[in-house]
Design a protein that fits this description.
Strand order of the largest sheet: 6-10-1-11-12
Structural class: alpha+beta
Helix content: 10-25%
Strand content: 25-35%
Number of strands: 12
Number of helices: 6
Distance between the termini: 24 Å
Largest sheet: 5 strands, antiparallel
Shape: globular
Length: 277
C-alpha cells in the first residue's frame, strides 16, 4: 500500500501525460450493444464513433486496468467488494475501502455515496477521494488497416468472426457472429495522471504494472476465446508541473518511443520522484 495517511494534504503539483499505441495481436471486440444492429450485420457489433470508425472507450480500458490491479493486489475478494449497480440483471461489484493508503481507491477514486458493502452495510468513515487517473477514448489509427488487410475484411475496417455454442445434450449448434477490429490494427491512447501530493508520485508504477498485466490478459469481450490480446509500444511520458499551467514553463519529456519494460524501469527508479519538479 501507499504512504498516504488520513492527514495527507492535497495540493496540485502537476500532471503526467502517458501516450502510446495499442496494437491488436488478435481481433478486438468491444461491444456496442444490440441497439446498433443492422439487417445482415453481425449479431454483436463493435462500438464506433459518429463517423463509423471503431475506437476503444476510455471506460473500457480504465475498467480493465482497475480490475487487473484489484486481482493482483488481492482485493477481488468478498470482504473487499462493494455493490455498485445492476446491469443486464447481474450485480456489478467493485473494490472500495475506507483505508487512506488504498492504492486502487487513490488511483480510480472513491465515492462512498454510490456504494455499500456486499453484505449491505455502509462503508463507515470513508471520505470521497478524487481520482488521479483519467483515461481517454483511444481512436483507431486508420492507416494501420493496410490495403492488403482490407481486401480480406468483411467490412472496410472490421472482420466478422463466426462462432458456435454447442448444446451439451443435443449437440445442436447455436451459431453467432462477432464483429472484431482485426489483428494488426493500432489505436492511440492517452492517459493523464494527476499528482496532488508527493505521495502520489510512486503510484505511476502501479499503472505501468496494470499495463503489463494487460499484455498477458485481454481487452474487451471474448478474451477466453482468443479475442483482445494487445501489446503497447511507442510510449511517451511527459511531466507538466504546476508552473507549466500557471507561468508557461516548459514541459519535461521523460521518455519517448519506449516499450513497457523501459517505462517500468524509469518509474521504478529511486530518483523518479526527483524528476517531477
Amino acid at each position: 500500500m501507499s504512504s498516504h495517511t488520513a492527514g495527507t494534504e492535497l495540493a496540485f503539483l502537476g500532471k503526467l501525460i502517458l501516450e502510446g499505441e495499442i496494437q491488436c495481436k488478435t481481433g478486438l471486440h468491444i461491444g456496442a450493444g444490440k441497439g446498433s444492429l443492422e439487417i445482415g450485420g453481425a449479431d454483436n457489433p463493435v462500438v464506433k464513433d459518429a463517423f463509423g470508425i471503431p475506437y476503444i472507450p476510455g471506460s473500457s480500458l480504465r475498467g480493465r486496468l482497475r480490475s487487473l490491479l484489484e486481482q493482483t493486489l488481492g482485493l477481488a475478494v468478498p470482504a473487499e467488494l462493494v455493490y455498485l449497480s445492476k446491469r443486464k440483471g447481474q450485480e456489478v461489484r467493485i473494490h472500495q475501502s475506507d483505508r487512506p493508503d488504498d492504492e486502487v481507491c487513490i488511483l480510480f477514486g472513491r465515492n462512498p455515496g454510490r456504494a455499500e458493502r456486499v453484505s449491505g452495510e455502509a462503508i463507515e468513515g470513508a471520505a470521497a477521494t478524487p481520482a488521479r487517473l483519467t483515461v481517454y477514448d483511444a481512436p483507431l489509427l486508420v492507416d494501420s488497416i493496410t490495403q492488403q488487410m482490407r481486401e480480406n475484411l468483411d467490412d472496410e475496417l472490421t472482420e466478422v468472426k463466426s462462432e458456435n455454442a454447442v448444446d451439451r445434450i443435443t449437440s445442436q449448434a447455436n451459431p453467432r457472429t462477432l464483429e472484431r477490429v482485426p489483428a494488426g490494427a493500432k489505436f492511440h491512447f492517452r492517459m493523464v495522471f494527476d499528482v496532488l501530493c508527493e505521495e502520489d508520485k510512486p503510484l505511476l508504477a502501479r499503472i505501468v504494472e496494470a499495463l503489463r498485466l494487460l499484455e498477458d490478459d485481454a481487452l474487451g469481450g471474448g478474451g477466453s476465446r482468443g479475442n483482445g490480446r494487445v501489446n503497447l509500444n511507442a510510449l511517451s511520458l511527459t511531466w507538466r508541473g504546476k508552473d507549466y499551467y500557471a507561468k508557461g514553463a516548459p514541459e519535461n519529456a521523460l521518455i519517448s518511443g519506449a516499450d513497457l519494460s523501459a517505462l517500468q524501469s524509469l518509474v521504478s527508479a529511486g530518483d523518479f520522484a526527483e524528476k517531477l519538479a
